[in-house]
Amino acid sequence: MKFRKLTIENYKSFQFATDIRFPVDGDGRGIFLIGGMNGAGKTSIMEAVNFCLYGAKPDEIFRGINRKEKARGNSGVAFELVMEMEDQTELTVKRSWSAGAIDDPKPKDLTERLTVVQDGKRVAVQNKEIWQNYIRSMIPPGITQFFFFDGEKIQSIAADDHSEVRLKSSLEAALGIQYINRLASDILYIKNEDRKGFIEISDEDLDFKQSELKKEQKELARKRRERDRVRQELDDFKARLEDARQRFAAAFHTEPESRESMRENEKKRIQAANRLGQVESEIRTLCEKTLPFAIMGRLFDPIRRQIESERESAGGEAIREQAAILAQRIVRAVEEPEPIFRETLSSEKKAELEGRIYRLLKAGDSRDDAERILDLSDRDAARILNKMETLETSDIFQLKPMLEEKRDLASQLRQLEGASQAGILTESERELFEELQAEMEGCSTQIGRKTEQSRLLEEAILDLEKRIRTIEVEIEKLYEKHHVAREKVEFLQECDAIAGVLNQFMVRLRKNKVHLLQEKTFEMYGLLSSRGGLIKDIAIDDKTYEVRVTDRNGHEIKKSGLSAGEKEIFAVSLLWGLAQTSRLRLPIIIDTPLSRLDSAHRDNIVNNYFPNAGEQVIILSTDTEIDKDYYRALKPRLSGAGILAFDPRRELTTFREGYFWET
User: Fold this and answer.
1) Among the four residues 20, 30, 52, 485, which has the most C-beta atoms within 10 Å?
2) In whole angstroms, what is the distance from residue 419 CA to residue 252 CA?
């Protein structure tokens, strides 16, 4: 790759679009020299190349906008780089930033735009990231610092004994190792992404599930055997119970009773006997106290009527006995306190009225004349009426229901006693009775236990059958997943294998590259150093990239023990070694490389490094670095030269061909 043209517009002192062309010799090699005083814009050229290739943050661009143009409202910055590719095609990359028509633009207002032209045809860059990746692949940003560098870069490498260790990632990028490392990382990333949500089904998983199935099936077979045994025992107990029942019926000509039934009958018999005794006691009590009077109960109503009749008859007699007195009182009542009639009765009339009333009272009512059988006083009559009422409300009249209850209880008791088979048995029959009864009860108990045991076994068998069906379904699914998993596992294993191979390759590549870097660095250091004869070897650790320099006696020479010039020579040698080892054919841009070197080292750089630095070397120098003598030494190898002319009054940089004293 070679740079053909660089255009800078409205950046720092490059107010107007400035084209810098880079011619090459017929053999494709050449050194292009650009002169410029301090502040003329040499560093701006380095920045323009980097910004055009890789872009930049808006703040960086905004700070570099030409001051005069910014004051006019022009915030547009543009860089264009024309390159000749390895396949002889021409690629133009243009990157610009603009804030549009905003009056007072800020960095955040800048919008970046990328344009790519290949062999005169504009390429669609809707996806800017794709083209950015393409550019980065051609010119990796991690290694441009070893191709586009200035004196400060040289100083940073030469700074201390272990400065190169800090450049490990950049060194690996220059050696091409980072791509292998990235490829291995990408493969592992793909593997990890592919493993997400993936459960590996191995043969061991299937074997485990199969063993689990066999275990459950074995348990099911055991439960079934146990169930069959319990069922057989249950049938045996049922047969023994039936046999005992038949023997009982044959011996006692009745159906056997259970002990519970017998106990219940005995309980009922005791309750009936107790109640019968209670009823008999109550009957005796009633008979002893009130039965004689209760026998007269049917005569209570006639007695009540006789007493009432005698009471009424006694009242009529009393009226007749007091008839004269009552007649007088009645007559007086006619006139007192106020006469009933208008006319006052005469004495004769009163006497006649009184006589009539007397006769009337004296005669009385023939119905009131009752035979006095009882002839009771009012007190005795009241006592007798009260006694009859007490007898009528007493329990004596419950005697009949109690007698009926007694008969029922006696009948029930006879039935219960007759039902008690053991009560009328002989001693031998009782023994047989107890034996058969105990056997039947034992069989009944065992039948209950075996029935419950059989039920529990049936439930366990159903659960096992369900579990076995579930495991069989799981095994079927596992076999399906196992087929898929086997392919997935093979893919993951291939990823591991590839990553392993890449890691091995990276280790070997690093050793080879570092060995080549050692040779190239030592080769250039021998050409550039004024003390080359004192250094026997330069060794670079293939893991840490730490550099060890040894003298002819095999003693290590610390970098800090070298002079400032030697340090810079070592840094330049390392940069050249990296460029050679990377095998990338990129242009070399060097900004002010000789400012800190003495004359001896400058001579070596000019005569030995510049001609061999690369196929295209662009040197940015002041008139004191590449002076007339060095210019004459380089001129045979120059493909062209130019100068950055800076006008302090206008703060403007322009570019024209020819070096300082050739313009």
Assistant:
1) 52
2) 12
